[in-house]
């Protein structure tokens, strides 16, 4: 083969290899940019960009996860198709996190992609539950369900039931599941257990689920804000001593909402 022809072929094969490598890199890099909302990271995962930089795709966290809720993403169908290749994730509706007290996934991680500073699973923030569909949730329809509330491992802290008047009957209460972000670990048990065909409550990555107040807002009713805020002697709202139909306060207190006032009863 002449030198020029060999050079030509080498050049062509080099260019083809470079193209393949670039294509492969693009394929691998693309899913890393957009993680589907259903794909939750294990407890202690660093913020996504730092996590992707630190995770060496060894799969040790997946190996040591007792309920096998963690998976390594791979090419193919399903949620994992769009998660950065080889990185661990779980889908709450399939198998939620069991919130192991000894955090085997975090202990298995050799790189700190799952932050070893996380010592208590109750402090994990894998995601945030959101009651996403008020129109289908059985409790919002005035029926009794509460399943998501009862399965929550942080019951009465991460999810509470807020009692409000049912405007449809005007004499019954509705118990609305309400999520509290500071206590929710994002384990996904509520989403897994929702009795509907499609869960009305879903766990989403926190950056999708949570809003953020502008820094200029001050909650004047919080103690730490009172010191440097102008003090207003706001008038206290005076509620009527006797409830009228539609009042929510008596329902919250458990008082009988339609009992007649003593003065009225004597007449
Ligand atoms: S806490 Fe337990 S169940 Fe949850 S991801 Fe880690 S090993 Fe798996
Ligand atoms: S153990 Fe750590 S480095 Fe290995 S796959 Fe899991 S998160 Fe990534
Ligand atoms: S389990 Fe589902 S339907 Fe039942 S209260 Fe919770 S969100 Fe509503």
UniProtKB/TrEMBL annotation:
Keywords: 4Fe-4S, Electron transport, Iron, Iron-sulfur, Metal-binding, Repeat, Signal, Transport. Residues 1-34 form the signal peptide. Residues 45-75, 87-119, 128-164, 175-206 form the 4Fe-4S ferredoxin-type domain. The keyword Cell division does not apply. Residues 243-267 are annotated as: Disordered. It comes from the Bacteria. The keyword Disulfide bond does not apply. One of its GO terms (molecular function) is 4 iron, 4 sulfur cluster binding. InterPro entries: 4Fe4S_Fe-S-bd, MauM_NapG, TAT_signal, TAT_signal_bac_arc. This is Ferredoxin-type protein NapG. It comes from Inhella inkyongensis.
């Amino acid at each position: 083969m002449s030198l020029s022809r060999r050079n030509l072929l080498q050049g062509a094969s080099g260019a083809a290899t470079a193209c393949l490598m670039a294509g492969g890199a693009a394929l691998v890099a693309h899913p890393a940019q957009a993680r589907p909302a259903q794909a939750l990271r294990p407890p202690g995962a660093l913020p996504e960009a730092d996590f992707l930089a630190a995770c060496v795709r060894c799969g040790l966290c997946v190996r040591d996860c007792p309920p096998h809720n963690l998976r390594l993403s791979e090419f193919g169908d399903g949620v994992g198709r769009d998660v950065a290749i080889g990185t661990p994730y779980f889908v709450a509706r399939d198998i939620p996190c069991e919130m192991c007290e000894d955090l085997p996934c975090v202990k298995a991680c050799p790189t700190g992609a799952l932050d070893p500073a996380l010592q208590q699973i109750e402090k994990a923030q894998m995601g945030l539950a959101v009651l996403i569909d008020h129109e289908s949730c059985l409790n919002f329809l005035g029926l009794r369900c509460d399943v998501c509330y009862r399965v929550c491992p942080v019951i009465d802290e991460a999810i509470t039931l807020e009692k409000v008047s049912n405007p449809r009957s005007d004499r019954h209460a509705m118990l609305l599941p309400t999520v509290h972000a500071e206590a929710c670990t994002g384990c996904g048990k509520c989403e897994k257990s929702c009795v509907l065909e499609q869960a009305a409550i879903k766990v989403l990555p926190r950056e999708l689920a949570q809003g953020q107040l502008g820094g200029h807002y001050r909650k004047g009713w919080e103690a730490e804000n009172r010191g440097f805020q102008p003090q207003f002697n706001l008038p206290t709202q005076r509620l009527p001593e006797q409830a009228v139909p539609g009042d929510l306060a008596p329902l919250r207190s458990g008082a009988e909402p339609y009992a007649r006032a003593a003065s009225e009863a004597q007449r």
